[in-house]
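Field log, afternoon session.

UNIT: design team B
ACTIVITY: writing a sequence onto a fixed backbone
BACKBONE:
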């Protein structure tokens, strides 16, 4: 049974895939976030793992600037572009962050020590959408680890993210520090998978799996073969999915989605 890291945008099916492996004997964490309506079977995300990734991302997310709107245009000439990220999530909400592909992902001796403490607990199955950005910091300390990238069509994923943010109190603007729009959520989706395709998947063994595959017997067979773990075939429940959108997305985003589908051997209708 191989160690596993599960990554991909939030609301794409990563929790469902993690759930199918939750009874296989993996260490997945010691303090899971509680269930809620969006994920009634659980998120399978550990608080400490999330916090490590939050701390890695913190230097990349500039603090909100409390300046009059009329000065923004003038200040853009003098302040680095990254200071004007359109969404600046506060701690615990950086799974909604937009991190440029060219950004250097920082680390520290304290973070490395915490990562090593987690990765000593083998076999492990670690799941967090933030890995889509932070994986380079973790990779040197991952042993015999297989990587599972879960994805879903971008329009439906974005709709699900927006529904989640509008229906859960702790994801409100007052708590997160952002007002997430369709365009911003789509940018986040695009950037996360850009990081995976352009930076992460060139090394290591990867399984790309579409949400629809993850609820199928064939997809579960692939997951079991890839990980060497026993998969709980009763766990996936496609009826939990409530969001669907056929809203058009930009060409760049669609190209990334097509590439993911190609890697997953999943056929899509391009008509």
């Amino acid at each position: 049974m191989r160690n596993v890291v599960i990554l991909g945008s939030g609301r794409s099916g990563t929790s469902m895939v993690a759930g199918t492996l939750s009874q296989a004997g993996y260490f997945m964490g010691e303090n899971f976030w509680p269930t809620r309506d969006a994920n009634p079977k659980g998120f399978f995300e550990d608080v400490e793992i999330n916090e490590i990734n939050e701390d890695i991302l913190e230097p990349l997310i500039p603090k909100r600037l409390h300046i009059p709107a009329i000065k923004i245009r003038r200040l853009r000439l003098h302040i680095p572009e990254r200071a004007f990220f359109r969404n600046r999530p506060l701690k615990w909400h950086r799974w909604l962050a937009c991190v440029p592909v060219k950004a250097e992902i920082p680390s520290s001796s304290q973070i490395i020590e915490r990562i090593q403490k987690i990765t000593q607990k083998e076999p492990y199955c670690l799941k967090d959408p933030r890995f889509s950005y932070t994986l380079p910091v973790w990779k040197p300390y991952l042993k015999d680890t297989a990587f599972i990238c879960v994805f879903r069509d971008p329009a439906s994923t974005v709709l699900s993210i927006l529904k989640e943010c509008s229906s859960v109190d702790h994801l409100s603007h007052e708590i997160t520090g952002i007002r997430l729009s369709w365009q911003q959520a789509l940018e986040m989706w695009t950037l996360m998978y850009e990081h995976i395709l352009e930076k992460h998947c060139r090394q290591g063994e990867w399984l790309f799996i579409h949400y629809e595959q993850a609820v199928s017997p064939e997809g579960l067979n692939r997951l079991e073969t890839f990980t060497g773990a026993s998969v709980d075939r009763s766990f996936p429940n496609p009826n939990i999915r409530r969001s669907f959108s056929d809203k058009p997305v930009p060409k760049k985003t669609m190209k990334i989605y097509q590439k993911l589908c190609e890697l997953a051997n999943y056929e899509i209708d391009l008509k």
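LOG NOTE: The first helix runs from residue 14 to 20.
NEXT ACTIVITY: expression trials, pending approval
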